[in-house]
Design goal:
- Keywords: Endoplasmic reticulum, Magnesium, Membrane, Transferase, Transmembrane, Transmembrane helix.
- With 337 residues, the chain is α/β, with parallel strands linked by helices.
- The chain is built from 11 helices and 7 strands.
- Helix 5 packs across helix 6 and helix 6 packs across helix 8.
- It is globular and about 90 Å long.
Length: 337
Amino acid sequence: MSSEKIAENARLLAGEDVDVSSNRVPPPEANFMKDPSKLKAFQAVTYSAAANEGQTTRTPKNNAFWNQEMGKIQYFISKTLLVGMYLVFGLFRYLQYECNKMKLRIWNVIYNPSNTPQLIRQDVTKLDKIPRRLAAILEMKSVGSVGGGVKGLMNDGSEVACWTVSAGIKHLILYDFDGILKKNVLEFKEEIKEKLSRYFGPSNVPKFALRIPHKNKVHFSNDDSHKVSLEISLLSNRDGRQTIVDLTKTMAELTKSKELQLQDITMRLMDKELTQLVGPEPDLLLYFGPSLDLQGFPPWHLRLTEFHWEQDNDQVAYSIFIRGLHKYSNCKINVGK
């Protein structure tokens, strides 16, 4: 193959324009156009074809107004249907909200312990079983709202602690996303003491301990005794996925330095380490919000946990607490081998 032919093919592949007029064979139309009489006949035929094409293309324009009106009608019908569906759903949601609020008011009247441990104990003794470990997710409301701010959060946490110790549950996990209770652990300890004295009397305040697993610290209600009736673990988002990431990095570094063998990393080892870093898995998790939101709760500790919340609820109420215990009492947990 000649170099000129190769260059020409290369240009064609590259998409460049190539002058091939000298080698091109003219099509039959080129010779046809040289005869004047034949040229006139050809022009007449092409003009007639163009006229017919223009007529056919102008035909839809006669229906443009009708198509435009149909489009407006379709748009109006679609918009009417969407607005109707929105109104129907809004009315249904409003009725559902009012119904849920009414049920919550009725439950608050039925389950009203009035800061009495004996009434709470009576409600619990009717149950077939109670959880050994209870967890609750708390949210700090805005400062301007009722029960808001840090003080409101500590008040909610102390109420749950009083209900828990009155029900005979030994372990409680309180989770708030930002770790406000951790940062104010001493003030929170005093808040629990004060609330327990209202329930049990100043001379019969149960002993408890506040545990911060992330810092490996424990604060006892009485420094002279480490035997407690209730152990409270304070968790935050730092104890969730970030702890799993930190543990994974630590195991990777130990494996790299030959201090840990790869075959030693098992699910049992992970479970043991996470239990030491965060704590044991709760049996029941309570959420005092309108819809379930785990807010970064440690995922490793929710494998067999039962959840309970009430739709459209926005307060920490005893009725939610006792209904959660009822739900746990009636549930059946199957653990695989």
